[in-house]
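Ligand-bound model needed. zinc ion.
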Amino acid sequence: MAQLKSIVAALLSGAAALTAPSTASADLGVVVTIKPIHSLVTRLMAGIGTPKLLVDGPASPHAFSLKPSHARAINNADVFIRVSEMVEPFTRKIVKAVPETVRVVTLEEAPGVKLLDVRTGSSFEQHTVAEDHHGASDGHIWLDPDNAKAIVAYLAELLAERSPADAAKLRLNAAQLNDDIDALAVELQESTRSIKDKPFIVFHDAYQYFGKRFGVDAVGSVTVSPEVAPGAKRLNELRAKIRALDVVCVFADPLFQPRLIAAVTEDTKTGSGTLDPTGMMLAAGKDLYFELMRGLAAGLKSCLEAHT
Ligand SMILES: [Zn+2]
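Prediction:
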């Protein structure tokens, strides 16, 4: 009996230690550049803390510039998570200047992440207007669910190392998230079945990870600035390309003016639609990654199913 009492006492004191506030977990400061990754990290850190997001609102990470408050947040972080210099050119300078206390994580270098080359060639134009990287990897890695799973597994161990008190919780959250991403991939495989092999082009070549994974890949891309209307010569080139590739739909990012898309597709039987590869029109948070991926499938379907 005395032995049982001491066991109960030991269990109770152990439980008290587990529920006592842990300074380690309260202090784990994580800053994330873009919404899709922030969404995954939010789930990973559930019950531990809330990661801070840099590129919020309807903004593209490709054209983002740091404010002093962002720079302060990065400099004060324990862990700063970005995807790649192609996706977030605004991180190029600051990662060379952060204090040694900041662990900079570049996800395109994470183990298990499968990289594709930036596409160039006859039917694909450069990824963004005024781009200066050549031969780089395509940075839109989160659009393949297998890469999302690799990112989650890698970050769970990295954060567990920074905050050992939270290791068990991080691993539990990572396992749950892994299962949720698996279920999402099965759902997307099913929902994209009806639109396989329908030729389309994109105004922003962001989708090859999604396209190759689910068999709904673009046949080409055109590079048009979201703000500047192309001239008559350029419009003729683009319409000729649409005809040559026998394109069913043209997809632009949400920031493109509808009249810009109409200018390219008018007088053709080609449809048009919108895709949002970074979730710029979605509210940040734990559900964003899943809403973004379902939104891509829905955006593709809404045009491709209506046009043949
Ligand atoms: Zn891009």
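The CA atoms of residues 273 and 303 lie 6 Å apart.
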